[in-house]
From TrEMBL:
Converts 2-succinylbenzoate (OSB) to 2-succinylbenzoyl-CoA (OSB-CoA). Belongs to the ATP-dependent AMP-binding enzyme family. MenE subfamily. Residues 9-351 form the AMP-dependent synthetase/ligase domain. Its EC number is 6.2.1.26. Gene3D superfamilies: 3.30.300.30, N-terminal domain of ligase-like. GO terms for molecular function: ATP binding; o-succinylbenzoate-CoA ligase activity. Residues 396-471 form the AMP-binding enzyme C-terminal domain. InterPro entries: AMP-bd_C, AMP-bd_C_sf, AMP-binding_CS, AMP-dep_synth/lig_dom, ANL_N_sf, ATP-dep_AMP-bd_enzyme, MenE. Keywords: ATP-binding, Ligase, Menaquinone biosynthesis, Nucleotide-binding. This is 2-succinylbenzoate--CoA ligase. GO terms for biological process: menaquinone biosynthetic process. PANTHER family: LONG-CHAIN-FATTY-ACID--COA LIGASE, NONRIBOSOMAL PEPTIDE SYNTHASE PES1 (EUROFUNG)-RELATED.
Amino acid sequence: MSERIPHWLEKQSEVNPHHIALESPDGGKKTFGELRQESRQMAQALMKSGVQKGDHIAFLSDNDLNYPVFIHAISYIGAVVVLLNTRLTSAEISYQLKDAHVKRLFISNSYEVKAEKASKNLNTAVQKVSELPQELADEYDLKRELALDEVYTMMYTSGTTGKPKAVMHTYGNHWFSAIASSLNLGLRHDDKWLMCLPLFHVGGFSVLMKSVIYGMTIHLMEKFEPSLVNKALITEGVSHVSVVTVMLQKLLEDLDGKRYPDHLKCMLLGGGPVPVHLLEQTADRNVPVFQTYGMTETSSQIATLSPESAFTKIGSAGKALSIAELWIDNDDEKQPGEIIVRGPMVSKGYYNHPHQRDAYLRTGDIGYKDEDGFLYVVDRVKDVIISGGENVYPAEIESVLSDIPGIREAGVTGRKDERWGEVPVAFLVSESPGTLEAEEVLDFCKERLGKYKLPAQLHWVEELPRNASNKVLRRQLFSLLDQED
């Protein structure tokens, strides 16, 4: 029999009914008591419209204060929610609706056209959340307990290679992820987490789970705007914020030499390898950046740098969280190998894609540990360039290129080569177009990279292709050249 816990929103409404659960920059607020009431009301409305326990339903919406209401409503019913990326095309959404066997698609008003196109020729009903019945009596019994091994959410992997797959997350995955994070970062009664990542992404959704499990306030923003985020970090008493590399770069530029107040305790930095020069810059300015490592399959972070190591292990993603294990697939863990993880926050698998699952997860990421056991993430296995028999890691080259004054961003991928098999090719975004010559860039690289790692070509582009979590999509870099033709 599955381990059960009291429904986490019921518990927070009981112990912290007047504590602010959600707030927005426009002044909107919901207490945990109000969030419980609205979520239960929406659960009644969803059941009135036909949603039942075990149903697969999908949700397509931007960040707003009603997003958590819908998410918690699903938990009161016992249905499974597929969180859809708002940046996908109708065709991509259609694939996910079919693959996940979605019965109903619920949307915010702005996605009506996209949803209708996506559901065409599918047995999937579309309904606006704003048109659900209002002010219903308590006709239906709602769940008061959560079974930790029941599937709660499904999120599709970004699909950078092949078709995306739906990662199944249980209530227990989300619960243990939140608990492990608090044991590493600590927890205070006045913590407030600013969230500007999309809530359909595991990095954003995990903070919703932290909020209801900890009893913590979320300052929820619709999207990332550097000036607005910095203003909130300075004036709204924010203690934590989740960012990826490109966001951190833009925040520092907008900050323009100023410093963050002492109440900012943690800038949680995820999304893959980070240029060391950027981390050194944050250390010089005393910005509390904690690099973290995780993925959709691990329900967000599974390793995070601890506060006491933030300035002594720059570039490290720390060690596995207290209830997780992490090791390197190499007899010598100080040498690069695939990162393997295990723990109760690791997903039980992919929906509709049967496969042999061991107790551990091969992540597809390359990393190594230093002499103290701290993890350093090098790159994705599938992104490694093999040139003349040597492994070339795009992230290493990108880090060097990003150190060059005048280069804002860099993306590196491999190109087939008759002599070497593959060679690295760099795509660069300039601070001021036309001010840097290729020769200057290569001269800088020659002093810091082995000859076989030097980019065979340089391409100047306006921006790099990224997914919803702002990761560079290296396999789409060459498509930028097609756009120029």
